[in-house]
Design a protein that fits this description.
9 strands, alpha/beta, D-Maltodextrin-Binding Protein, domain 2, 13% strand, nine-stranded mixed beta sheet
């Protein structure tokens, strides 16, 4: 699941209402559908659609050690160079809820004398369905996850980029993203945000620190904090947590025996701590409702906005391994094939790669952008990030050691979902 999945009407999800609750309502109370029907069928339909091209041909699985260069089709070429921005235009942006600063949109419109219209989606499945229907018309598709780029290219939903309109990508984006493994030569994508998955905890309730443990990902397995421990409601993230706790770092494993280990570890966590499963890390740690929460870095970077009156943000901790050996992910921005304003769309992608514009955007959503100058010192100096939460900062050198949760073969993806359901739907 994407960190923003489920956000509604420009607000975070209501605490206590999780994706798991939705699945339980969809499948029926107590249902443990593990086959190709019920909840298992629902989930596999979502993920399976991302594993094949439009005619059922398997798409290559991009990996850091197996980079992919997506084709440019004769009927879907980049726009010409040297074109002027469209006049009297309304740039139409399609994005996750609450994932771009409204002020950034206003500033761009003022600079290029245009209107900017934002439409939100709440899940990537929803977004792709709308775009594939041909019944919507947007220019920019934001927050595109690495696992769906291949499908978007194969279905010709997005258009290849003309780099002449994107000088900031060369001069300000991290070099790693000028030739990313999931889109070699950045032919279709521009990097947007980057984040890690670690452990958040309340320092005023827990005297220990996951950084003091040989393996910090084992930190939630503490029976003395029963009722105060939560993990993310995500069929990839939480099994990955269990794998890493056991010392397994292949987060795209297709091994049935390793998935069985993850399932066993999670069931043990349930037994030990009566673990909560939700994506409310951004509220439950600041409020003290949970004392340990498996968490996304961008959510915890914004913790100060959710602290109760009189409680300092310093009591919130976030741990990610110093060697970078933990889950790392990034989102991308793209231009849709049917864009009515393709020049403005290119300029908008370029605009968000500018340092000052990136900082403005980060101050709103908490999620870092891989732009040179977005540093720990700058974020603290500008009051965007509390000094006590600089562990949420993603470093370029650490990126190379990060573990990516990437697209799986259809059968393996279903196996991951089934392993997670046996744990999550029984709570």
């Amino acid at each position: 699941m994407h960190p923003k999945e489920g956000w509604q009407d420009g607000r975070p999800p209501i605490p206590g209402v999780s994706r798991r609750a939705f699945l339980r309502r969809s499948a029926g109370a107590g249902a443990l559908a593990l086959g190709a029907s019920g909840v298992g069928g629902l989930l596999s339909a979502c993920s399976g659609a991302l594993a094949t091209g439009p005619v059922g041909k398997p798409l290559p699985l991009a990996r850091p050690d197996h980079p992919v260069t997506w084709p440019i089709y004769a009927d879907n070429k980049p726009i010409k160079s040297g074109l002027l921005p469209e006049r009297n235009a309304t740039l139409k942006v399609f994005n996750w809820t609450a994932y771009v600063n409204p002020q950034s949109l206003k500033n761009f419109g003022k600079k290029y004398n245009c209107q900017v219209e934002l439409t939100n989606f709440n899940t990537m499945t929803e977004a792709l369905a709308k775009l594939s229907s041909g019944q919507v018309n947007f220019d920019v598709f934001m927050g595109v996850t690495a696992d769906v780029i291949g499908k978007a290219v194969a279905e010709k939903l997005i258009q290849p980029l003309n780099h002449s309109y994107l000088p900031n990508l060369v001069h300000q984006a991290w070099r790693e993203y000028q030739n990313p493994f999931y889109d070699q030569r950045w032919q279709y994508t521009v990097p947007y945000t980057i984040y890690t998955t670690g452990i958040a905890w309340r320092k005023d309730h827990i005297p220990d620190d996951p950084g003091n443990w040989p393996n910090g990902y084992a930190f939630p397995w503490q029976s003395k904090y029963a009722g105060k421990v939560a993990i993310l409601d995500d069929y990839r993230e939480s099994p990955c947590l269990a794998l890493m706790k056991h010392g397994i770092y292949d987060l795209n494993t297709t091994s049935a025996s390793q998935l069985a280990i993850a399932q066993r570890e999670l069931k043990e966590l349930v037994k030990m701590t009566n673990v909560h499963i939700d994506n409310n890390d951004y509220t439950e740690i600041p409020s003290g409702q949970m004392w340990i929460h498996h968490a996304w870095s961008g959510d915890m970077a914004a913790a100060a906005s959710y602290m109760p009156k009189g409680v300092p943000v310093d009591v919130v901790g976030y741990w990610f391994p110093a060697d970078g050996k933990g889950p790392t992910a990034n989102d991308t921005n793209t231009i849709l094939r049917g864009a009515q304003n393709p020049v403005l769309a290119h300029l908008f992608l370029n605009y968000l790669q500018d340092l000052d514009n990136a900082l403005t955007n980060i101050s709103y959503n908490g999620y870092m952008q891989p732009v040179y100058g977005v540093t720990e010192d700058r974020l603290v100096h500008d009051g965007i990030l509390p000094k006590s939460l600089t562990s949420t900062v993603v470093l370029e050198e650490g990126l190379r050691h990060g573990l990516w949760e990437l697209q799986l073969p259809i059968e393996s993806d279903l196996a991951w979902q089934q392993a997670w359901q046996t744990v999550s739907l029984g709570i």
